[in-house]
Design a protein that fits this description.
Elements (H helix, E strand, L loop, with lengths): L8 E10 L2 E11 L4 E5 L6 H9 L6 E6 L13 E5 L10 H11 L5 H10 L13 H13 L5 E5 L7 H18 L2 E5 L3 H7 L2 E6 L2 E7 H8 L3 H14 L1
Parallel strand pairs: 3-7, 3-8, 5-6, 6-7
Antiparallel strand pairs: 1-2, 1-4, 8-9
Helix pairs in contact: 2-3, 2-4, 3-4, 4-5, 6-8
Bound molecules: adenosine-5'-triphosphate.
Length: about 240
């Protein structure tokens, strides 16, 4: 089987135990290619832990995980994966141009023209130091850095949390447009369910370290007669009540 045919993520019996206990248990999951996937769940549900195992930064305690058919080996992220977190570790002293140059050096498949186009579209000045940019502008630079790598899977762990509603909408729209135009699979974790409803076509819901619901949003909506955010909220409420 060629590497292209492997799904972006397949997990079987996947579990992660920290010293305080299990963060993720019995996780069986397949993330299909080309989808925009909402990863939702209450605080502490295990979302970041799952993403950490996909990047290879965290090692599973039990089970297996494969990323495009490869087992993450802890020696760096899969070359087809880009990861953006709320922290957006950009160097504040670097200009935007220098930041993209860094992206070029660090990533063999780097697409400089595409990264520059994303910065230009966002109207972020190339000569500005990253530390002087607004939160929204920094996010656009971080997104250009992530997409310039030409990933096949882009993971975003609460990347919009510090943005105002308008900036959130713009960034999310850009992200989804780029993903659909280039066939990138997106795994997006957020607590703002209404916002995910407009852009995600696949849902993975975690509660207390377990996958409670996973599947195509349209299909889940037909089955349950509710939209993504209502459905996710109902599951989270039932967890609290249990
Ligand atoms: N390094 C760690 N050491 C010990 N426990 C941890 C560690 N990282 C996470 N945990 C615990 O694992 C559980 C899952 O955490 P995780 O960060 O994956 O949840 P999350 O769904 O991303 O939460 P949030 O929505 O609050 O970001 C929590 O109980 C958390 O306290």
């Amino acid at each position: 089987m060629s590497q292209r045919e492997h799904p972006p993520v397949v997990a079987e019996d996947l579990g992660k135990k920290y010293t305080r206990g299990w963060a993720l248990r019995d996780c069986a999951l397949e993330i299909p290619a080309g989808r925009v996937v909402a990863l939702v769940g209450p605080n502490g549900a295990g979302k970041s832990t799952l993403m950490g195992m996909i990047t290879g930064l965290l090692r599973p305690t039990t089970g297996r995980i494969a990323v495009f058919g490869d087992v993450p080996n802890g020696r760096g992220m899969h070359r087809s994966v880009a990861f953006l977190t709320q922290a957006k570790p950009l160097y504040p002293q670097f200009t935007v141009t220098e930041t993209l140059r860094y992206g070029q050096r660090a990533n063999p498949g780097w697409d400089q023209a595409y990264a520059e186009e994303l910065v230009r579209k966002a109207q972020v000045p190339f000569a500005a130091k990253v530390g002087t940019l607004s939160g929204g502008q920094r996010t656009r630079v971080a997104l250009a850095l992530a997409l310039g790598k030409r990933p096949r899977l882009l993971m975003l762990d609460e990347p919009l949390a510090d943005l105002d509603p308008l900036a959130r909408e713009t960034v999310l729209q850009t992200l989804v447009e780029e993903a659909r135009a280039h066939g990138i699979t997106v795994l997006l974790s957020s607590h703002v369910l209404a916002e995910l409803e407009n852009v995600c076509d696949h849902l993975v819901l975690l509660t207390s370290g377990r996958v409670r619901l996973a599947g195509d949003v349209d299909q889940l909506m037909r089955q349950h007669g509710r939209g993504l955010s209502e459905l996710a909220l109902a599951y989270m409420r039932s967890e609290v009540a249990a």
